[in-house]
Amino acid sequence: MDWSGRTNVDRRGDEIALRVLEGVADADDRRISDLPPLYSTLDPDALGALFRRSDSDLRVVFEYDDKTVTVREGGRVTVDEGF
């Protein structure tokens, strides 16, 4: 299943990390609890800190659970098939 969407979230890191998990889980019609830990790929707190402290057009792209995840300023999360 190819899922791509954007979701605005509060800039708090835990909410950005949750949006990442929700997007990846939705992409394969799975539950968040079925995914590997996000912290195995990146530090969710560091991701949140980047977006709390940035006033520019920040974009972070990483691979997680065979998906390409893009997080943009404003908390927009996009999930696509892997790199």
Structural overview:
The protein is α+β, with helices and mostly antiparallel strands. It has two helices and three strands. Strands 1-2-3 form a three-stranded antiparallel sheet, with helices on one face. Helix 1 packs across helix 2. The longest helix is centred in the N-terminal third of the chain and has 15 residues. The two termini are 15 Å apart. About 7% of the residues have low confidence.
Strand arrangement, largest sheet? Answer: 1-2-3
**How far is the N terminus from the C terminus?**
15 Å
Structural class: alpha+beta
Q: Tell me the major beta sheet.
A: 3 strands, antiparallel
Low-confidence stretches: 6-11
Structural shape: globular
Mean pLDDT, to the nearest integer, reads 82
Strand content: 15-25%
- Determine the fraction of residues in helical runs and give it as a percent range: 25-40%
What Rg do the Cα atoms give?
12 Å
Order of helices and strands: HHEEE
SS elements, strand count: 3
Summarize the structure.
By secondary structure, this protein is α+β, with helices and mostly antiparallel strands. Helix content is 30%, strand content 22%. Helix 1 packs across helix 2 (44-53).
Q: Could you outline the blueprint of secondary structure elements for this entry?
A:
Blueprint: H1 13-27, H2 44-53, E1 59-64, E2 67-72, E3 76-81
Antiparallel strand pairs: 1-2, 2-3
Helix pairs in contact: 1-2
